[in-house]
Amino acid sequence: MLCLLRKFLMTMTIVLLLSACSLEEIEAWLFIEETPSAPIVEGEAIVSFLDVGQGDSTLIQSEKTTILVDTGRHDSDVLFHQLDHLGIEKIDLLILTHPHADHIGNADQVIYQFSPDEVWIDGNEAATRTFERLLDALIETETLVVEPRAGEVYEQGDFLIEILHPDELTGHLNNDSISTRITYGDVTFLLTGDAEQRSEERMLESGLNLKADIYKVGHHGSSTSNSRRFVEAVSPEVAIYSAEANNSYGHPHWEVVDLFEDLGIDLYGTAEHGTITIYTDGETFELYYE
Ligand SMILES: [Zn+2]
């Protein structure tokens, strides 16, 4: 809605200016209208939980940096339509939580097209063509690859990224998901990929701060993740899951939906709400959906 308002204001500005402008100036304004307006202003961050069907992809933007966490499914290129629609030309940091095909689905093409400066992977391998294509893209482009570990803290533009998990690899692809607590000003997001309850326990035991305002619901809303103790430790205002409507896994599981309801936490999901966007000035945040 905010975007629409901005577009409307831009159009109104163009209309108002047309009458007073020379031809040269008119062309300049028309050019602005045709170019997607930069969505980010200084002092604002936008986090978009992209609707990529039964997969994951979260876009995190400020004026200084663009981060993409996961790249949607291997059998869908809807991610590129979304990134194109949002006017994304460059991704600075690509985080791949774990090598399942609903998370690294388009990673190779994202690397070729958006030239991330760094790609984070957990270090596990998958015996799939999708994973092979990712490795080929990383080698071919000579992109810097980082394997972050629990306890590390990174600064990326205006964002502080605390690594919550894994501390070491177990070889279990879901459970080794890179889990992050991402802070912009005073507003905090928590993303755990498909980490399951065993990993949530490990994060609880680690003593790391898990509190967040916005919680990306673990593992598409599966009851194998999102234990009560973990969600209580995160204690979010808003929880957002990514899943396709009527998916065969039954995500989000009713136990998880019930848990959030019981804890009084607002639950949103791409299956119901499409792409969900959080706008924040670092103090408060607003949520919009399609
Ligand atoms: Zn998944």
UniProtKB/TrEMBL annotation:
Known PANTHER family for this protein? BETA-LACTAMASE DOMAIN PROTEIN, DNA INTERNALIZATION/COMPETENCE PROTEIN COMEC/REC2
Q: Which Pfam families match?
A: Lactamase_B
Could you tell me which residue ranges the Metallo-beta-lactamase domain spans? 54-244
Report the protein name in the record.
Metallo-beta-lactamase domain-containing protein
CDD domains, A to Z: ComA-like_MBL-fold
* InterPro entries, alphabetized: ComA-like_MBL, Competence_DNA_uptake, Metallo-B-lactamas, RibonucZ/Hydroxyglut_hydro
Please spell out the taxonomic lineage of the organism that makes this protein.
Bacteria, Bacillati, Bacillota, Bacilli, Bacillales
Highest taxon listed in the record's lineage: Bacteria
